[in-house]
Write a structure and sequence with these properties.
The complex is a heterodimer of chains A (1248) and B (219).
Chain A lengths: L1 H14 L5 H10 L6 H4 L10 H19 L30 E5 L1 H13 L5 E6 L3 E5 L3 E5 L5 E6 L7 E6 L5 E6 L4 E5 L5 E5 L9 E6 L5 E6 L4 E9 L2 E10 L6 E6 L16 E7 L2 E8 L3 E7 L9 E10 L5 E11 L2 E10 L2 E11 L4 E7 L3 E6 L3 E6 L4 E7 L9 H5 L9 H6 L8 E4 L2 E5 L4 E6 L2 H10 L3 H14 L4 H22 L8 H11 L2 H15 L1 H16 L8 H14 L1 H10 L7 H10 L3 H10 L6 H6 L8 H18 L11 H15 L5 H5 L9 H9 L1 H12 L7 H17 L7 H16 L7 H11 L9 H16 L9 H10 L3 H11 L5 H7 L4 H11 L7 H27 L4 H10 L10 H10 L5 H10 L4 H11 L2 H14 L3 H18 L5 H15 L6 H14 L2 H11 L6 H44 L26 E3 L6 E3 H11 L7 H5 L32 H9 L2 H9 L4 E3 L1
Antiparallel strand pairs in A: 1-28, 2-3, 3-4, 4-5, 6-7, 7-8, 8-9, 10-11, 11-12, 12-13, 14-15, 15-16, 16-17, 18-19, 19-20, 20-21, 22-23, 23-24, 24-25, 26-27, 27-28, 29-30, 29-31
Helix pairs in contact in A: 8-9, 8-10, 9-10, 9-11, 10-11, 11-13, 12-13, 13-14, 15-17, 16-17, 19-23, 22-23, 23-25, 25-26, 25-27, 27-29, 28-29, 29-30, 31-32, 32-33, 34-36, 35-36, 36-37, 37-38, 37-39, 38-39, 38-40, 39-40, 40-42, 41-42
Chain B lengths: L9 H7 L10 E10 L5 H10 L12 E10 L2 E10 L9 H5 L4 E7 L3 H17 L5 E7 L11 H11 L2 E4 L8 H11 L30
Parallel strand pairs in B: 1-3, 1-4, 4-5, 5-6
Antiparallel strand pairs in B: 2-3
The chains are: A alpha+beta (1248), B alpha/beta (219).
Main location (chain B): other
EC number (chain B): 3.6.5.2
InterPro entries (chain B): P-loop_NTPase, Small_GTP-bd, Small_GTPase
Chain lengths: 1248, 219
């Protein structure tokens, strides 16, 4: 790289100062690398390094050192990173701090510091970056640096125009335009630093410059001033004299423009875009943004309102982006991002039908307000928020990928220009407020880098490419992440072959780095991911050779780890073949650990990668039968040796042998069917041979060893014999399956079949096999014959039939029996037995052998339907079919369904009463009575249709029957006492129920039942408490107890029964009863509890009585106190006249008592009141006066009663202890409120 | 993103390394297969070469066994991946699988057994017909320690080898005679680096195997 850089830039700059065409061409390529080179046929540019390339080169060297030197926090990964696969470039998962790269430009920063110190240049105020880096200072100096950070020239303003407020390079970096805080605009030659034009009066007088920008036309520039106006500067050069025409595009009077951003279509290379002919500018005020064409004529294309916080400026940025529309058309169009506050809006600008159109794309909302928003490449936007944290936002997923704190950069703000401090502050307040956060000229972007200007420093935030990120992660030994990232990139490039190749190369490079690194820290932890990487990209050879060798050299554990990882991949079937070196190690490794696992691995591996000598020997030693069979068949193409070697080992003894036996059965079956073991198919060309070989091997008369050694006692056909001994049924199944193959279906095949059957018969002699096994065989043969798979052979048939028709077979299970039957049935239905015996004979045989199904079939066949139902009835498995049969043939008179039904009615009812009755009701409704008669005539041995339990359940679960009728019915039915009891109880005639229960108890024949009955009774009595009178209840209990107590066997119950009883009957009587009835042997213990209970309850009752009397006394006392209090109360009267007779009170006759109404204070003579009451026929004594008047409070009743206190003779009228009426009233009503109300109302009192 | 494909060392390393397995020009890897009738001493020969051991009663090989050995010739590290096939007739069908991708083959016969020599000849024929045309074939007359009861004469075999362009040596796994030499001779005759940058060690038709090379067999 070094030799690349030196000649290109240096020589260019030195030799050809005037022309920077090549540099331009180079810089044009920058932003565009991301578009797929292949798709756009852009030639690779290896010729010159770009500025970015040069920058990033020294970045990587400095990277971390720089940051630490400056006390800058290293880029910290933010927690909220995207996990999107295709978020970045070639696609990376989340940032993890690897995406953003921070760099401090040391050279420029030190130059800035020294300029400030030595020539009093002041702090930096703005910057511009193109092929050069220009920095303006607050004292009007402009410093121009080249890419190597060397100062090319410095320019000092001689006109005291204040700070440099804005800088801009033109498209080819040949001119630098600078704007000053006091309004001067100058244009300089970037090569020499000469000011070519000094323009003093091109903008609103007495305002400062905010922005200077070059447009896409080389002679046209734009300038925005602090007054909010935008001016176009058209540079002319007439007759060698440089001039400038300035024109006001927008006046600040109609909305102050804060941001301008011309669309520069650079980067498209040779391709032309429709928008090239226009000169387009985006403008933003504090409330709107506009898209404007300046050339060919000034026109507003579109404007939108733009809301946001008052102290946030609008942000504008263009970039060319490859856009894939929904209809899969692709286009490269400029996309404008407009930001304000925490919002970002994306708009696409394109030409449709000759009109420039702005299309809204998407909207991103961030967490905090933004200072700046710049594109870094076409896929992400970098922004700084107000707390100076840089965010990287992926546009496609609208998610933040990474963030980085830039607070230590000492960011320069352009607030002074916005506030117009240099020109006396003649700006609008809104503008000045918004300008507090202005960073338009101190944060600039170029390519994928963001330049951030500090007071005396320049910082770069770059975006690492996929490859660089991998390098970064590798450098920090984050292998896991690096592998993951690399793999994601590889997988994402699926559709782009060229990119995929590059990704693969990068991964291989990563692998190499890993290998060369693996020795120092043994990075076992990421071995898995690196292996995974290599397997995914398919570079297995590198794994086997380099990595394996390296690991073997490091340690044993790491190579074991490697093997384990590889095994996992084999199990997941992501690799099928290994290097033999690895497979040897693998086999060795798993043999020592887990041979079962080894077997699984072998089954999944290609045999060519195995060392057969090693594996086969190991497999045999460890009895990995499946693997052995697999290898023998696949590799050695030897299908018989598994049989000859393994079959002798099969027995039914151990688990292992059984497993082997089953394996072999499956193996034989799949061989005979032409399938491979354990999966796949036998190659077509071998298939026939394999089948033939296997079969011949199976049916060979002597085992292979026998041919060599003379083992005399070996029975013939050892292999088949072993299998049959192992599992007759399954072996026969295997043969049956094999018979269905094509090979057995021609004439030759038939003879094979016959031979095999004969062999089987020869082997399965009664001496060598159980009857069950022979049964299996004969069933099998019968099946074969009936399926016409075997030629009919009379001898064979007879033999089979003799088995089938056996009358009794010892230990025959129902399954065997039904198999026998069905085999017979099959034979019959195929007419195979015609030649050896007639149907009648068969019928006899079937009857003897209890093969009812066969019998049924034969009857059906012979059309003798008379007793066919018998067969059904006798055969439990055919019961269901019986009813179907009857249904089906009920209409056919010759089947005599009804007669048979009649004969067998009872049995059928037993089998399924419901179905039977349904059948009868459906088809023979007119004969029901006949049938019932029949049934009732057989009643002597009556078996009821319902069990007593069912009846009881029915009674319990149903409502609405008439009890008396039900009792009548149930009683008439005899032994349904329990139901009767239930009904009695329901009828509430407990006495009867009890009597019945007692009967049952007496009749109970076992202790168990008796105790159950007794409990039932006690429960019954418990329920009857409410209805049964006490005396009767007591009597019941007594009779129960009298029965229970003498019975020794019911001792266990006595206690609980006594307890129950004690709740309901008098304890005294109970004890008496016990004393009288208890037999001698009874101990005190039985009644101890009872007595204790008596004592306790007596104590409780005494206590209760005492308490009750105490409470009563208290009440009385309280009342008395109350009464006394009342009697002592003073009374007032309103007038001294009786309110009825208007006579004076007290003054009259001595016998006239005076009543005073306590509430109202009216007073009357008693005599008068009585008279009045008699008149009015009123019982109570309301105050006559109040009653006469309309009551002021009708709701409150007048005192309802009074107390007579006769001083002369009150002996007969009332006792002193008599409770006063109000109290009685009170007690009955018992309301605290009323009590309060009444207490206020004193009772009337007699006055003398 | 400006520099995605061209940054770092990818371009540089791409030039230095071949994409195939031979990563350095100082090392190469060959697949070698041993053929011959059963019990002529193939496994013993390999065992002697790889481990320097000899067993009087070598178990017969099942299918094929795999071994590796690395040797140095001049400045090149040669790694042999050796497939020692089983000689029994029943494994004959396996052999093509192994010699198909092999760069070298050693056909072994027993100098006491004329049949084995005939069998070796048929193997050579088969190799010429079926194997890759560039395969280097060596003929080894094994059990040379028992030369007093030999049946196959040295000259006869030598003549046959020359006619068919084979390397030829009489070897003895028991004594170790010529065992390393035959492998070395093969290694020398094999084209290094697959013809990518011929550095003089290309095929030398008259590879004079009789001159003793410095036998620096390194692990």
């Amino acid at each position: 790289m070094a030799e690349l850089k030196a000649p290109s830039l240096q020589s260019l700059l030195d030799s050809d100062r005037g022309s920077t065409d090549s540099l331009l061409a180079e810089s044009l390529q920058l932003d565009f690398d991301d578009l797929d080179d292949k798709e756009y046929a852009i030639p690779p540019t290896d010729v010159l390094p770009s500025l970015e390339a040069v920058m990033s080169e020294f970045d990587t060297e400095l990277d971390s050192d720089v940051a630490s030197e400056l006390g800058m926090p290293m880029p910290t990964p933010s927690p909220s990173l995207v996990g999107d696969g295709d978020s970045m470039r070639a696609g990376g998962v989340g940032g993890g701090g690897s995406i953003m790269r921070y760099t401090l430009l040391h050279g420029i920063s030190s130059q800035l510091s020294s300029a400030a110190e030595r020539v009093n240049a002041g702090a930096a105020s703005c910057c511009a970056v193109a092929a050069y880096i220009a920095v303006g200072t607050s004292h009007g100096h402009i410093l121009n640096f080249d890419v190597t950070q060397t100062l090319r020239w410095a320019h000092q303003d001689k006109h005291s125009q204040g700070s440099v407020s804005s800088l801009a390079f033109n498209g080819d970096s040949s001119r630098l335009m600078a704007g000053y805080a006091r309004g001067l605009v100058i244009v300089m030659d970037t090569q020499t630093g000469d000011a070519l034009r000094e323009l003093f009066e091109v903008i609103t007088p007495n305002t400062g410059v905010l922005h200077v920008k070059w447009t896409s036309r080389s002679s046209l520039a734009l300038c925005a001033d602090a007054g909010g106006s935008v001016w176009s500067l058209n540079f002319t050069r007439k007759l060698g004299i440089r001039g400038c025409q300035s024109r006001c595009l927008f006046s600040g009077a109609r909305g102050e423009v804060c941001a301008i951003e011309p669309l520069l279509m650079e980067g498209l290379g040779s391709r032309r875009h429709e928008l090239d002919q226009y000169c387009i500018v985006a403008l933003a005020t504090l409330s709107k943004y506009f898209i404007v064409t300046v050339r060919p004529r000034l026109r507003v294309i579109k404007y939108h309102s733009l809301q946001g916080p008052a102290d946030c400026l609008p942000l504008l940025a263009w970039h060319l982006v490859l856009i894939q529309a929904a209809d899969a058309t692709r286009s490269v169009d400029p996309v404008l991002v407009v930001g304000r506050g925490n919002q970002l809006f994306f708009h696409q600008l394109f030409v449709a039908n000759g009109r420039i159109t702005l299309l809204y794309l998407r909207h991103v909302q961030l967490q905090s307000n933004l200072l700046s928003a710049h594109w870094l490449g076409p896929k992400c936007v970098a922004s700084l928020d107000t707390s100076e944290v840089g965010h990287l936002i992926d546009v496609r997923s609208s998610k933040e990928m990474e963030c980085m704190d830039m607070a230590n950069a000492g960011l320069v703000y352009n607030s002074a220009q916005f506030k117009g401090l240099a020109t006396g502050g003649n700006v609008s307040p809104a503008f000045a407020l918004a300008g507090t956060n202005a960073c338009y000229n101190s944060i600039v972007s170029r390519g994928t880098q963001l330049y951030i200007l500090g007071n005396h420093s320049l910082h770069i935030i770059g975006v690492r490419s996929w490859s660089e990120r991998i390098s970064f992660l590798v450098k920090n030994h984050r292998w896991q992440e690096a592998c993951q990232l690399a793999l994601d990139g590889y997988l994402n490039s699926t559709e782009r072959p060229r990119k995929r190749l590059q990704a693969k190369e990068r991964i291989i490079q990563l692998f190499k780095e890993y290998i060369s690194n693996a020795s120092r820290p043994p990075p076992d932890y990421c071995l898995g991911s690196i292996i995974n990487c290599m397997i995914v990209i398919g570079e297995l050879d590198l794994l086997w050779s380099e990595l394996w060798e390296r690991l073997q050299n490091t340690s044993k554990t790491s190579s074991e780890l490697f093997l384990q990882h590889i095994s996992e991949h084999i199990e997941q079937e992501s690799i099928h073949s290994l290097n033999p070196i690895i497979s040897q190690a693998l086999v060795e490794f798993w043999l020592n650990r887990n041979p079962i696992k080894l077997e699984q691995l072998i089954l999944k591996l290609d045999w060519l990668s195995l060392d057969l000598n090693q594996v086969l020997k190991a497999v045999k030693r460890h009895k990995l039968y499946k693997a052995q069979i697999y290898l023998n068949t696949q590799a050695l193409n030897d299908y018989t040796s598994p049989l000859t070697e393994l079959l002798p080992l099969v027995t039914t003894a151990g688990l292992e042998e059984r497993y082997l036996g089953n394996c072999l059965l499956v193996y034989i079956s799949s061989c005979l069917a032409g399938r491979g073991f354990p999966s796949g198919d036998i190659p077509l060309e071998h298939r026939h041979q394999v089948k033939h070989d296997v079969l011949r091997c199976l049916t060979s008369q002597h085992s292979r060893d026998k041919e060599i050694a003379d083992v005399e006692e070996e029975l013939p056909y050892p292999y088949l014999r072993t299998l049959l001994k192992f599992d007759t049924r399954e072996t026969l199944n295997v043969i049956n399956l094999a018979f269905q193959e094509r090979e057995f279906s021609n004439d030759l095949g038939y003879s094979y079949r016959k031979r095999i059957i004969n062999l089987l018969l020869e082997i399965m002699t009664p001496e060598n096999a159980t009857w069950a096994e022979i049964g299996c065989l004969l069933n099998f043969i019968a099946q074969q014959i009936s399926q016409q798979c075997l030629p009919c052979d009379k001898h064979l048939l007879e033999r089979v039939l003799s088995y089938l028709a056996q009358e009794h077979i010892a230990n025959e299970s129902s399954r065997q029996h039904s198999e026998r039957e069905s085999a017979w049935h099959e034979l019959l239905s195929q007419n195979c037995l015609n030649q050896i015996s007639s149907d009648e004979e068969q019928l006899q045989l079937a009857k003897k052998a209890k093969c009812y199904y066969v019998e049924e079939y034969l009857l059906e066949k012979m059309k003798s339907y008379d007793h066919i139902l018998d067969c059904y009835i006798k055969n439990p498995s055919r019961h269901d079919m019986m009813f179907a049969y009857m249904e089906r043939h009920v209409q056919e008179p010759e089947r005599r369904i009804y007669d048979q039904l009649k004969d067998n009615l009872r049995q059928m009812l037993d089998i399924n009463a419901q179905q039977t009755t349904r059948l009868v009701a459906l088809h023979y409704p007119e004969r029901i009575s006949e049938l019932i008669d029949l049934l009732s005539s057989q009643k002597d041995d009556a078996k009821y249709l319902f069990t007593p339990e069912q009846i009881e359940e029915f009674l319990r679960s149903h409502e609405g029957y008439r009890l008396d009728k039900a009792i009548e019915i149930v009683e008439s039915c005899g032994p349904l006492k329990r139901s009767v009891i239930y009904l009695y109880e329901k009828q509430e005639s407990y006495a009867k129920a009890f009597d019945l229960s007692m009967d049952m108890l007496r009749e109970a024949d076992s202790t168990n039942q008796a105790s159950k009955e007794a409990q039932e009774i006690s429960a019954l009595l418990g329920r009857s408490v409410k209805t049964l009178p006490t005396a009767q209840l007591e009597r019941c209990w007594f009779s129960l107890l009298q029965y229970i107590l003498p019975h020794q066997e019911l001792q266990s119950l006595t206690k609980s029964l006594l307890h129950e009883a004690s709740q309901h009957i008098d304890l005294h009587n109970l004890v008496q009863l016990i004393m009288q009835t208890h037999n001698v042997s009874s101990s005190f213990g039985d009644i101890k509890d009872l007595l204790m209970g008596m004592l306790v309850s007596s104590r409780q009752q005494t206590e209760a009585l005492r308490t009750a009397s105490e409470i009563l006394c208290q009440d009385l006392h309280k009342d008395f106190v109350e009464q006394q209090k009342l009697s002592r109360r003073g009374l007032w009267i309103t007038s001294l006249r009786c309110s009825i007779c208007r006579q004076r009170l007290g003054g009259g006759a001595a016998d006239s008592t005076v009543l005073i109404m306590g509430k109202c204070g009216h007073s009357v003579h008693e005599k008068c009141l009585i008279e009045r009451q008699e008149e009015l026929k009123e019982d109570d004594e309301p105050c006559p006066r109040c009653a006469a008047m309309p009551a002021p409070l009708p709701s409150t009743p007048s005192p309802a009663s009074h107390l007579r206190l006769n001083d002369h003779h009150d002996e007969s009228r009332m006792s002193p202890m008599r409770l006063p009426c109000p109290s009685q009233h009170l007690l009955s009503q018992s309301s605290a409120l009323e009590l309060g109300a009444l207490q206020l109302k004193a009772p009337p009192r007699r006055f003398y | 993103m400006a520099t995605t494909p061209r940054s770092g060392g990818a371009a540089g390393s791409g030039a230095a390394q071949r994409p195939n397995g031979t990563s350095q020009n100082k090392s190469c890897q060959f697949k070698l297969v041993l053929l011959g009738e059963s019990a002529v001493g193939k496994s013993s020969l390999v065992l002697r070469f790889v481990k320097g051991q000899f067993h009087e009663y070598q178990e017969s090989t099942i299918g094929a066994a795999f071994l590796t050995q690395t040797i140095c010739i001049e400045d090149t590290v040669v790694k042999f991946e050796i497939w020692d096939t089983a000689g029994q007739e029943r494994y004959h069908s396996l052999a093509p699988m192994y010699y198909r991708g092999a760069q070298a083959a050693i056909v072994v016969y027993d100098i006491q057994n004329q049949d084995s020599f005939q069998r070796a000849k048929t193997w050579v024929k088969e190799l010429h017909k079926q194997a890759s045309p560039n395969i280097v074939i060596a003929l080894a007359g094994n059990k040379a320690d028992l030369s007093n009861i030999r049946v196959v004469e040295f000259d006869e075999a030598k003549q046959y080898a020359e006619e068919n362009g084979l390397l030829f040596m009489e070897t003895s796994a028991k004594t170790g005679m010529n065992v390393n030499d035959i492998f070395l001779a093969i290694a020398k005759k094999l084209p290094k680096n697959d013809g990518a940058n011929n550095q003089g060690t290309s095929i030398r038709p008259n590879g004079n195997e009789t001159n003793r090379p410095t036998n620096n067999c390194c692990k």
